[in-house]
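Workshop exercise sheet. Pairs work together: one partner reads the sequence aloud, the other fills in the structure field after running the prediction. Swap roles for the next sheet.
Pair: D.N. / O.F.
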Amino acid sequence: MGDVEIPSDLRFTLDDEWARHDDGRVVIGITDYAQQQLGDIVFVELPEADTAVTQGKPFGVIESVKAVSDLNAPISGKIVEVNQTLIDRPETVNEDCYGDGWLCVISPAAEVELEGLLDAAAYRRHVDERSEPES
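Structure field:
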């Protein structure tokens, strides 16, 4: 699956979320692989700002024409900002998952959790393993 964009400056989860450290805050979203697998995204449910999230636990829902999936927090902390654009334009995630289609911003409880996430090379291997045809 070589046509999946995986930016080298991000960290990734096995659940296909990405995290970008940005001046003491962490911007999160879903990966290109995830949005391709979901297809056309029609709804995104995110928590309010000031909501505490726990690494690996669901914090929201993303719905496409094919499936409804939980969004799992890549790190623990408090949500400080939510992408309001996604309320009216959830398809923004399909159009620009690493840019305008970000989900929310977290103030991390422990920045060390970021270091435990996958780097781009490890996430690429994870995507490739799931994309290989069954033998």
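Discussion prompt: The mean pLDDT is 95. What would you look at next?
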